[in-house]
Amino acid sequence: MEEAEELPPPRQQAQKLAEEVPEKPLAKATGGPVLQQERAAAQDAKESDRQAQAQPADNTGLSISSLSSDAQHEADGALAAGFARRAQQLLARSAEDERKAAAYALSAKALRGNATALIRRTSFETREAAKQATELVAQNALAQVKKLQEEAAASASGAEERRKKAKEAMHRVLKAQAALHSASESTS
User: Is residue 29 predicted with pLDDT exceeding 50?
Assistant: First the structure.
């Protein structure tokens, strides 16, 4: 009976086993570190069962080694079940992460395409706006140039007309002067 008190309870054994087995990421669903550990735990449990069957039972019908074997078997089963659940969770999370990564990649590709199209469209619209603004400024300037040309032509025409009249007036003045000069010579 003293030997039974020295053995830790199954929960403590399971905790001890969990601490001894380092948590490693899963490689794949088949043959990964978690499944190999589960297989090793199952083999250990079978070995413990064989040893328990080989030892004779005491007068109560139970032996310490069979109790130990049962506790070990229970702990191994609990540990294996925990590892299996964890493996399933990690596999499900991995598949979900891959799906999300693919969706993000598609979104990124679409956004890059949209950005490229927007850049092209913006470039085209900027050129068109600059062209329209230039045409508007040029039309306004052309209208002013035409107006100034018309005013210059009108001024030039008016100046030519005034020069012609001034020349004719000068010619008449010279004639009148000459006539006056000839009349004053004939009276003298």
Answer: no
